[in-house]
Write a structure and sequence with these properties.
Number of strands: 9
Structural class: alpha+beta
Radius of gyration: 21 Å
CATH architecture of the largest domain: Orthogonal Bundle
Order of helices and strands: EEEHEHHHHHHHHHHHEEEEE
CATH class of the largest domain: Mainly Alpha
CATH topology of the largest domain: Hypothetical protein af1432
Largest sheet: 5 strands, antiparallel
Helix content: 40-55%
Shape: globular
Strand order of the largest sheet: 8-7-6-5-9
Distance between the termini: 20 Å
Strand content: 5-15%
């Protein structure tokens, strides 16, 4: 099984994992041969990538987070957001229910051997805002685990990450979804979501200051060039620093109205390159240890032209996996294993949807 960007999925590919909507209803079952109409439907539902069956491996990729937790978290988040906007309903009861689910999600991640193999696609729904916040929460928990946070700290970090963009509920949708560059006035209105989110959480919930601060700090930058307060360095709460990196990473790897997504590999390199300027270098180090840009089953092209499938990851050296080579100089060959730690001059050049040979 391998993860393939939806733009590279072709008619006839066999779906490797079933697809569901936000209510847990089956959309397309695994092992289904995809037609062009099915692919168009998947695109319309907001999926950026899907798992495709591979003839070279039968390995199953398990969901780190059980779908039932994803669905409950999604629906509760929407319900709570509605209560905050309308100022109606028992928000405290709903937050308590959400808190219990988050604890179960944290247990799932803490008990997982491979933290980041299947987090970004654990919630592929048509509502981008909620999908984004869920993925930022999952990734933030994973970074916190790498940093050695206690379960209590992970809980507060998770809730803060889930509501980091709550202020966008008060920004006009035509600005949020504008496909072109924002005017200066529109950008100032967009930037106001950090302060608005913090203020509304403070006024209408009993969430702690540590949780609320994430909504205020997640656009601050390590060098002081962020907003809304221009904080820098240790002035930014550690939770805000974590969510800042996860927020940018998740946004880069998702389709937006104003640009196309980039690969996990490229997005990871962007975060690493921002260490010490945009992002706390300690957070970036934890990010590098957590985010695997070449999950097992990925098809890759090496800098010497060979093509193969990632068989396993070298811990702490995610950019140098063990690759099963299937193609040399455009020709299919008897596969053999190449550990990229053995030759430093060869790198992964690209993730590819298929091998280049034709027969």
């Amino acid at each position: 099984m391998r993860l393939v960007p939806i733009v590279s999925v072709k008619e006839g590919y066999i779906l490797g994992k079933s697809l569901y909507n936000e209510n847990g209803q089956l959309l397309i079952a695994k092992n289904t041969g995809l037609t062009q109409s099915m692919i168009s439907k998947i695109v319309s539902l907001g999926y950026n990538s899907v798992y495709i069956a591979s003839q070279y491996t039968e390995n199953e990729i398990d969901d780190i987070i059980k779908p039932k937790f994803v669905q409950k978290t999604m629906l509760l988040s929407k319900r709570i957001s509605g209560m905050i906007v309308s100022k109606k309903g028992n928000i405290h009861s709903s937050l308590g229910e959400l808190s219990d689910i988050v604890d179960e999600i944290i247990d799932e991640i803490l008990n997982s051997r491979e933290i980041f193999l299947n987090l970004l696609n654990v919630s592929s729904y048509d509502d981008y805002t909620y999908k984004h916040c869920l993925n930022v929460m999952f990734l933030s928990i994973s970074i916190g685990r790498t940093l050695g946070y206690t379960k209590g700290q992970l809980h507060d970090l998770a809730i803060g990450a889930l509501f980091h963009d709550i202020g966008k509920l008060f920004v006009p949708k035509d600005i949020l979804l504008k496909p072109s560059a924002l005017s200066n006035q529109e950008f100032e209105l967009m930037k106001s979501h950090s302060r608005k989110g913090f203020d509304f959480l403070k006024e209408y919930t009993d969430l702690s200051a540590i949780i609320r601060i994430v909504s205020l700090d997640h656009h601050e930058k390590w060098d002081g060039t962020g907003y809304p307060q221009g904080k820098k360095g240790d002035e930014i709460h550690p939770f805000g620093r974590i969510v800042a990196a996860c927020d940018v990473f998740e946004a880069l790897t998702a389709n937006r109205p104003y640009r196309k997504e980039i690969s996990l590999w490229e997005a990871r390199e962007y975060i690493l390159g921002g260490g010490g300027s945009f992002f706390d270098f300690q957070i970036v180090q934890a990010f590098a240890q957590t985010v695997n840009p070449f999950p097992v089953g990925s098809y890759v092209r090496l800098s010497d032209g060979r093509e193969g499938m990632v068989k396993s990851s070298n811990k702490n050296f995610y950019t140098r996996p063990v690759v099963e080579i299937h193609c040399e100089q455009g020709r299919k060959i008897d596969p053999y294993t190449f550990d990229m730690l053995d030759i430093n001059s060869i790198i992964v050049e690209d993730i590819i949807p298929d091998f280049s040979y034709t027969a």
